[in-house]
Write a structure and sequence with these properties.
Helix content is about 45%, strand content about 20%. The protein has about 130 residues and is an alpha/beta fold.
Length: about 130
Amino acid sequence: MARILMAKPGLDGHDRGIKVVSLALRDAGFEVIYTGIRQRPAHIASIAVDEDVAAIGLSILSGAHLGLTRKVLAELAVRGAADIPVIVGGTIPAGDVALLREAGAAGVFSTGTTIPDLVQGVRDVIAARAGVPA
């Protein structure tokens, strides 16, 4: 099954949600690598490249989701890994979903997303990258 990197960029230290999502993805058959809290975008991109992940999941509750997502995407591009899809979850205002998509996020899951919908959404993103049906 696909390997996914789960990361919390920035200064937000609330990690209950990302741990729940990581366990759900693991239970769904993904190999999950969790970086822990307060990671820098450059470090997240570096781990993603080193671990050859199929996707990155960012959990952001601080309100800095647009800036941090853009920084992770830029760091991936610097490393020649812009093809690794970045999925963003957390406290995302509805009006920012389109902005995250325009910035390059492959998926956006706000609070209230069900676990089955999240797992299927991650599968869809990874399948789209591989060019196969989910």
